[in-house]
Amino acid sequence: xxxxxxxxxxxxxxxxxxxxxxxxxxxxxxxxxxxxxxxxxxxxxxxxxxxxxxxxxxxxxxxxxxxxxxxxxxxxxxxxxxxxxxxxxxxxxxxxxxxxxxxxxxxxxxxxxxxxxxxxxxxxxxxxxxxxxxxxxxxxxxxxxxxxxxxxxxxxxxxxxxxxxxxxxxxxxxxxxxxxxxxxxxxxxxxxxxxxxxxxxxxxxxxxxxxxxxxxxxxxxxxxxxxxxxxxxxxxxxxxxxxxxxxxxxxxxxxxxxxxxxxxxxxxxxxxxxxxxxxxxxxxxxxxxxxxxxxxxxxxxxxxxxxxxxxxxxxxxxxxxxxxxxxxxxxxxxxxxxxxxxxxxxxxxxxxxxxxxxxxxxxxx
Length: 365
Description:
Layout: H1 3-44, H2 49-64, H3 72-94, H4 107-115, E1 118-120, H5 124-131, H6 141-157, H7 166-196, E2 198-200, H8 213-220, H9 223-245, H10 251-274, H11 281-303, H12 311-336, H13 339-364
Helix pairs in contact: 1-2, 1-3, 1-4, 1-13, 2-3, 3-9, 3-10, 6-7, 7-12, 9-10, 10-11, 11-12
């Protein structure tokens, strides 16, 4: 990295530390106040159109609040949690559906469930069941430690970007996004358990082991989004299409509709990150995967289990297809908003902040 780039990075770091955290606090205070209003409205206003109308100002506010943030990590996660997760959960709650519809929820738990992928522990039997299913929920500390070390290694490798082929860099970005999201959400899960006795739903289930697109999107990648899109998009379209196509083929339009909505929401998230007009490649990425998943399911229904690829071959094809299409349509849009440079600047900011804390502790001791 040359001196000019380093100077620019220091400028970004200075702005991020001085202004972004203040904006982050203001945004989340607004979120909590707004959700408290929704909590009270849910107790007073009957479900249906009237409750929906009372929630719409909050939904609109949650679409605007991410525009107050400019960092990749704080801004990106905030946009994901409130513009997507919270808004979809509020829309379900308006009709007394979804995780917020439990009348026994206290205000603190309502706030947590509304803006985070929270899964409450209700009984000892449920706790025991979760403990025995670590592959679907919690992973071992060693698992996260290894991924943390790999993420640190990736960040160090970025110092040599000028010597690495762009295609290899795109592959590294794939793992960067995966490691960063999983580790961030694991930290949030630990806080949720400590403060609320709640569980953060797993975001990933080792997606690099996927054996099909159905396995990749349905059981391994971005599981929180699957749980939100299923009751809000997939199920309603499935019910409608069953009356037209029958039960055998009804899932196909439901799947495509889900990918369309996912693509449009990702375009919105990318706009929050870069503040540049969409070029729709991200939407085409999801449309392509939706179409391929429909074809895969149609083939499976036709052969009825008579044909199976060896697991290693199926995994290579699935992960390879996902990465190649990501290189083509998904990651170039992140690079267009300089996501890599901005993310690295934020790591520098965090490192400088931690160093200042250690210096202060050393001085006073």
